[in-house]
Task: structure prediction
Amino acid sequence: MAPLMSSVDLLRPFAERLRAFIADPQAVVDLRRYFGIGVPPGGMPFTGSRFEHLAGGGDRPEVADRITAEDLIAVQTLSVTVPVPVALDILEGRLGTRLSGLLHAIPSDIDMVDAEEDAVADGSPADQAWSLLCEQYGVNWVIAGKVMARKRPRLLPVYDRIVRCAVGRPPSFWLALHAALSEDDAALHRRLLELRQAAGLPETVSALRVCDVAVWMNHRAVGHACP
Result:
């Protein structure tokens, strides 16, 4: 009988794929293009470059624990839209109240690499908020994840089908990413900060967002075939 694989062994292919994207010299070029750094006259950054910055960000203290209309517009910069009935319930109804209670329990001032695993584990307030949107209100998992990333950009990552195709499908993307960032004395996290600096991006662009954009741009360019 083959020996049982540890959780570290199971996550190693995920971490290796992630590191390969981040180590690619193209990553700096892609980040600069995405965020409109050094683009030629008439060139335009990707609309997603406004995701974290629109209206000062979704995690600024006065709105960190509630989802605003600005947050819903910010999500649209990533080419998705919260369904109108759900958006209205968030802004004016019980769903908004429930999400605010959960957001209040999610730290807004910590990077994923520095957070305890419990902060992104199944059953955590972050997971409960994501599940509330997906399971009780029928919001697509990609959209729900982008809503959460807007509210907690340092702790929770953007995750869509292109990124999933690029790095694989771990049982929990949040936990797998947390483990990858924490390995080798946070080497991957430090590399992401180096990429941010090399691309000339402001510190308001989180390490998680640097990771997402680098992977997304690279895999998008070659064309992904995963469903």
Notes: Confidence is low (pLDDT under 50) at residues 1-8. The chain is about 55% helix and 0% strand.
